[in-house]
Amino acid sequence: MRRSIAPVLAVLVAAGCASGTARTSGSPSPATTAAKPATQDTSGRIGSQYPSTYTRHPNPPVLIRNATIMTAAGQEIQGGSILFKDGRIVAVGTNVQAPSDATVVDGTGKWVTPGVIDVHSHLGVYAAPGTFAESDGNEATRPVTAEVWAEHSFWPQDPQIPLAIEGGVTTIQALPGSANLIGGRSAVLKLIPARTVQEMKFPGAHYGLKMACGENPKRVYGQRGGPSTRMGNMAGYREAFIAAQGYRQKWDKWDKDHQGDPPERNLRNETLAEVLRGNIYVQNHCYRADEMAQMLDLAREFGFKIRAFHHAVEAYKIADLLARDGTAAAMWSDWWGFKEEAMDGIHENAALVEQAGAKADIHSDDPGGIQRLNQEAAKAMYAGRRAGIPITRDQAVRWFTANPAWILGLDSIVGTLEPGKMADVVLWSGDPLSVYARAVQVYNDGWLVYDRNDPTHQPKTDFTLGQGGPRQ
Amino acid sequence: MIAFLLAQTIAITGGTVYPVSGPKIENATVLIRDGRIAAVGTSVAVPAGATRIDASGKWVTPGFLDGAGQMGLREISAVNNTNESSVSGDPVAASFNVLEGINPASTLIAVNRIEGITTTLAVPNGSLILGQAVLIDLDGRTIEAMRVKSPAAMVADLSEGSKDAGGGSRAGVAQRLRQVLNDAREYGTRRADFRRNQIQNLSASAADLEALQPVLRGELPLLVIANRRSDIETALRIAKEYKLKLILAGVAEGWMIPDEIAAAGVPVLVEPLDNIPSYDALGIRYENAPLLAKGGVKIALMETATENTRDLRQEAGNAVASGMTWDQALRAVTLTPAEIFGVADRYGSLEAGKIANVVVWTGDPFEFSTGVDHVFIRGRDIPLRSRQTELLERYRTLPPKY
């Protein structure tokens, strides 16, 4: 459970997708810019073979009134209201009128945040009940498998999905595991009940490319032809991208002149070429500071950006380099010590990254942790404050909302509570930075996907039916 | 010399004291002398020369006790050379006591004690009969100095993790456990015959059968890992047959049968944030701990991630969010586990005569906003330093101070 990471690529904009009023959401971080949602197919030669079929669930307008609203855009509004309609946030403030057809929710004593986003999940690819039959996260047959896509493993009936929804999660990046140097493409998904992964694919999201540093590839391939060392890891990435450079040149030339037959397609290089073109975001599992620095050099060699280091346990040691290169750090609040490259984890990691001006994110990599990313962010915020690092409550909320939205290139669409943004909204029983708070209602694109007090809004997967468990 | 003696008397004054054995006391003093609690209350006279700790506005509780993990037995779980918690080979390892595998210099100890964990159970790993768990305080230069109770429990596993030891079937697991207990019983009454080889072959070594004698006498608890409802019931059945003193751990589907567990008088150890279904426990849920507590079961909470034993307080807070009362949760990380492991005469509450494991918190110990001001273990004011605090100081400003 405590290992893994990410892949990438841009999805098609499907009909009915929300695209939001693009806005750089007041990030204090100088190193980052709002991502442009991909507006065309950037997946290479495949056209629209794997499109999102996501459509917004119809629902009445909702007004949550008299709550404390944490916008993740700089405000914490006491006695505030939020109105959303047709999947969009219409208004946030202290004086919001409800249209006559709106469902009015009393938020007295409750809090509201944007939907929780986890940039590092293996839901659906390492599904419960966790047998070999559901173990579809690592194509651990060779160290570079840029050709595989997490969405082709994803099981929408994973019983862990409703648990994450109950924790307020509205968007995830489902990633291949970290056995491989290059593990494959991620799937960026709306976390909703669905029959097919296509119905969950977040329209306009960039694919990610999962890459992994350090111990895992070495361990898996050390006795199987390599790599068996960290220098072998580096050589492996470089060889793969050199091949992709040649592939990209051939196709770029052909796209321009259409001379002769088109070059032969190669799935692996197709994905890597999209990384080189900047359309697929590199999501890089990397624990150690010195290895992150190596990876930043590798990205420079090939002219791409690493969007985020995941499991960046030592990010605090090179937070200045992350700020310089505009690379985010996705972190746990307190995981450490379970493997050698995780020995130097400290509670103040996220706070120190934030203080250095880099983008901090709290991720889970874990079906348990994804249910309480708000708690993990709170833990990291208060640890930072106790160490004298002045993290604001808004910043802590951004660690599990706006910043992961940026990592996925979705920050113009989701991640804050601002007019025009997609109505991914969580109503909490209390302060979400308290251990005692629970998500009471979760809206995904305006759809009430979970209501703690209403069994008709408590989704169950097929798997749990007839099992005699708690969700019958 | 006089200064040395005086330094052993510490008065924690002005705090809100949660003795656990009784209701909270506002503006109370906890007096510590020579490693023990000397007095608790609002009218405690502070001796001249005592070290005073001002706890005004603070919360004072017993140190937390986690009945899980491998503290001291495991530095890095992925590095085998740093793991001492299991002996390979025989699924019956009753004579394996983990005590001498404990490393008092483990970096995990300081990381966790400075967040309020003062005592932990060090539990063996393995399959059917894993060995003997020991209870340790998280301070001391030697194993002897850390030891609270050894053995504190014999550990067995009736979950799916033991199926191989039963030939691949849960029925086989139960049969094998009974066979070992039967043989231990026979061995206990016929040691002389055993030595003269005038006894049929027994299913475990003499050392293992000897180690099971206090279990058969009902003196040493048998701590059984079981999650599926039917496995919990098998454990209850076997414990009844052999009149064992049973502790259940895991107990994921215990919420289905709180009455049965309570009626058997069996205490349980539960991890509140465990809710991911597997075939070992499809009914696992957050509400397990509160439902067991509501059903009258004696319950202690645990955090099983050794390196983050400190998250026991997050487990407790979440148990409250899922329906336990706050008082139940505090008791479930202090006095109840002390009772379960038979050390409540010395541990688990703030009462005169008890070992001075005391924590001064800045607020509610279960809340993230709360920090630790002082941790006393056996009366020693523990420096709030660890490898992690040293890393923080080194890298607080970049470039680091090498």
Q: Could you give a quick summary of the protein structure above?
A:
The complex is a heterodimer of chains A (472) and B (402). By secondary structure, chain A is of the alpha/beta class.
Fold blueprint:
The complex is a heterodimer of chains A (472) and B (402).
Chain A: E1 8-9, E2 62-70, E3 76-85, E4 88-93, E5 103-106, E6 111-114, E7 116-121, H1 160-166, E8 169-174, E9 182-185, E10 187-190, E11 207-212, H2 215-221, H3 230-257, H4 267-276, E12 281-285, H5 289-302, E13 306-310, H6 319-325, E14 328-331, H7 349-355, E15 360-362, H8 373-386, H9 393-398, H10 402-407, E16 425-428, E17 439-444, E18 447-451
Parallel strand pairs in A: 2-5, 2-6, 7-8, 11-12, 12-13, 13-14, 14-15
Antiparallel strand pairs in A: 1-11, 2-3, 3-4, 6-16, 8-10, 9-11, 16-17, 17-18
Chain B: H1 2-6, E1 9-17, E2 25-33, E3 36-41, E4 51-54, E5 59-62, E6 64-66, H2 107-113, E7 117-122, E8 129-137, H3 143-146, E9 147-157, H4 170-189, H5 191-195, H6 206-211, H7 213-216, E10 222-226, H8 229-242, E11 246-250, H9 258-263, E12 268-270, H10 288-294, E13 299-301, H11 312-321, H12 326-331, H13 335-340, E14 358-361, E15 372-377, E16 380-381, H14 387-395
Parallel strand pairs in B: 1-4, 1-5, 6-7, 9-10, 10-11, 11-12, 12-13
Antiparallel strand pairs in B: 1-2, 2-3, 5-14, 7-8, 8-9, 14-15, 15-16
Helix pairs in contact in B: 4-8
Question: Would you write up a description of this structure?
Answer:
With 472 residues, chain A is of the alpha/beta class. Chain A has one domain (8-53, 115-412): Metal-dependent hydrolases (TIM Barrel). Chain A has ten helices and 18 strands. In chain A, the strands form three sheets. In chain A, strands 2, 3, 4, 5, 6, 16, 17 and 18 form an eight-stranded mixed β-sheet that branches. In chain A, strands 1, 9, 11, 12, 13, 14 and 15 form a seven-stranded mixed β-sheet that branches. In chain A, helix 3 packs parallel to helix 5 and helix 7 crosses helix 8 (373-386). The model of chain A is unreliable at 1-46 (pLDDT under 50). Chain B is an alpha/beta fold and 402 residues long. Chain B folds into two domains: 1-63 and 348-402, Roll (Urease, subunit C, domain 1), CATH 2.30.40.10; 64-344, Metal-dependent hydrolases (TIM Barrel), CATH 3.20.20. Chain B has 14 helices and 16 strands. Chain B has helices at 2-6, 107-113, 143-146, 170-189, 191-195, 206-211, 213-216, 229-242, 258-263, 288-294, 312-321, 326-331, 335-340, 387-395, and strands spanning 9-17, 25-33, 36-41, 51-54, 59-62, 64-66, 117-122, 129-137, 147-157, 222-226, 246-250, 268-270, 299-301, 358-361, 372-377, 380-381. In chain B, strands 1, 2, 3, 4, 5, 14, 15 and 16 form an eight-stranded mixed β-sheet that branches. An eight-stranded mixed β-sheet of chain B has the order 6-7-8-9-10-11-12-13. In chain B, a hairpin with a 2-residue loop joins strand 2 (25-33) and strand 3. At the A-B interface, helix 8 of A face helix 2, helix 11 and helix 14 of B.
